[in-house]
From TrEMBL:
GO terms for cellular component: periplasmic space. PANTHER family: ARABINOSE-BINDING PROTEIN-RELATED (PTHR43649), BINDING PROTEIN COMPONENT OF ABC SUGAR TRANSPORTER-RELATED (PTHR43649:SF28). Pfam families: SBP_bac_8 (PF13416). It is found in: Periplasm. GO terms for biological process: transmembrane transport. Belongs to the bacterial solute-binding protein 1 family. Its main location: periplasm. Residues 1-24 form the signal peptide. The lineage of its organism: Bacteria, Pseudomonadati, Pseudomonadota, Alphaproteobacteria, Hyphomicrobiales. Part of a binding-protein-dependent transport system for a sugar. This is Probable sugar-binding periplasmic protein. Keywords: Periplasm, Signal, Sugar transport, Transport. InterPro entries: Bact_solute-bd_prot1, SBP, SBP_1_CS. Gene3D superfamilies: Periplasmic binding protein-like II.
Length: 420
């Protein structure tokens, strides 16, 4: 080995010692339940970030939606979770923060782009600490096959009576399943069923806040009547709906075999890619013509930092970018139906997304009734609502029995008006 070679290699080693850490390669992993968005992250979102930050690589590694909460909890407990964590709103993520598994992001550059209301779903009860960067809200309503409606000579309903008259006409015609919904996975019975139409009965935020305060109970008429309506849906959901999974329902609709899909706005991208017909949407029907309409406009997803991440600085760089108007514009248009919570308005290009978000101009907005405060104990009201919504639609529980079970479970641990 020559002296010249030794001098050269020694010089390179010395130079490497002074290379700034920012230029060292870092890989971040994102945990999420949004497996439907894998291609959007891989082809649009991550490349946009990596173009600005070539020293940071990002991997999007989603789990199945129904398995995410338990899988994430197990990974966090075992120390094997990714650096960044998609955050459910309110109680589920607050519990992880209180366990010290989500880092405190208060003061993170970019959080000033969100209002206190936008941050509420991922902040401490006193609003002083924020532990996830808000990404988007989703709206609930109904999607429908425009070609089928034209073929049947029907129009989207505006009242409950018109809704059931429409279902009767579709069922009598026989060419389409009226409602693409199953109860096998349970959660959609609650999320796209009970939480979709329920605000119309309990008057949105007024009812939800009364439930938290204890001045209303789940056994009151305004909370039981949505279940009475859901029990009637079962007659229009097709043969074998009890064994029908969420993907089964999606396929039933996108293959053109069902006319209406009780939906969340998050379905837009997937449905428009898979369906060969134009999709329309209508808001939850009001009880009587002229009534105020109510919609579930739910803060749905945010991104937090695993407190045990060994790449915290790089992860915070990514989170600051997620808090930017640039990310909001990409996410709002590449994942239509996820409506950014960033203060700077995003110009949406997707026609169906624009139609759905316009409901905010006409209707009062609320969040899902079980998500804030009421699902912090055991039994968990959100999970119990999944089960009872499915039981009602399966007709194994009456609406009254389902409501009694839910209220009894809540009474066993929750003292009204107190944030447990």
């Amino acid at each position: 080995m020559t002296r010249a070679f030794l001098r050269a290699t020694t010089g390179l080693a010395a130079l490497a010692a002074f290379v700034p850490a920012a230029f060292a390669q870092t890989t971040l992993t994102i945990e999420s339940w949004r497996n439907d968005d894998l291609s959007i992250w891989q082809e649009k979102i991550i490349p946009a970030f990596e173009a600005e930050h070539p020293d940071i690589k990002v991997t999007f590694a989603p789990s199945a939606p129904t398995e995410y909460n338990s899988a994430l909890s197990a990974k966090l407990d075992a120390g094997s979770a990714g650096d960044l964590v998609a955050c459910r709103p309110f109680d589920a993520s607050l519990a992880l923060f209180k366990k010290g598994q989500l880092a405190d992001l208060t003061g993170l550059s970019g959080l000033e782009n969100f209002s206190p209301i936008a941050k509420t779903a991922w902040s401490s009860d006193d609003g002083q600490q924020t532990f996830c960067v808000p990404m988007a809200a989703v709206l609930h309503g109904f999607m429908y096959n425009k070609a089928a409606f034209t073929e049947l000579g029907v129009e989207p309903p505006t009242t409950e009576a018109e809704f059931f008259a429409l279902l009767d006409k579709i069922k009598a015609d026989g060419r389409y399943v009226p409602l693409a919904m199953g109860t096998k996975d349970q959660w959609e019975a609650a999320t796209m069923g009970y939480q979709n139409i329920g605000p119309t009965y309990w008057k949105g935020e007024a009812g939800r806040e009364a439930l938290v305060a204890g001045t209303e109970k789940l056994t009151d008429p305004e909370w039981v009547k949505p279940y009475e309506t859901l029990a009637k849906w079962a007659d229009y959901m097709g043969e074998g709906y009890q064994a029908q999974t969420y993907p089964d329902s999606q396929n039933l609709f996108t293959l053109g075999r069902a006319a209406i899909y009780p939906a969340g706005s998050w379905e837009i991208a997937t449905f428009e890619q898979q369906a060969d017909f134009e999709i329309g949407a209508f808001k939850p029907p009001v009880l009587a013509a002229g009534d105020k309409c109510y919609i579930s406009d739910h803060p749905d997803i945010a991104l937090g930092l695993n407190a045990a991440s060994k790449n915290a600085d790089a992860a915070k760089t990514f989170l600051t970018w997620v808090a930017s108007p640039e990310f909001a514009a990409i996410y709002g248009n590449e994942a239509p139906g996820f409506f950014p919570l960033n203060d700077k308005p995003v110009e949406l290009t997707n026609a169906l997304a624009k139609d759905i978000v316009s409901w905010r101009n006409d209707c009062e907005r609320t969040i899902r009734s079980t998500y804030q405060i009421l699902s912090r104990g055991t039994p968990n009201l959100e999970n119990e609502t999944w089960a009872e919504s499915a039981n009602v639609m399966n007709k194994t529980d009456t609406p009254a029995v389902a409501a009694e079970k839910l209220q009894k479970g809540l009474d066993s641990w929750y003292k009204p008006g107190q944030a447990n």
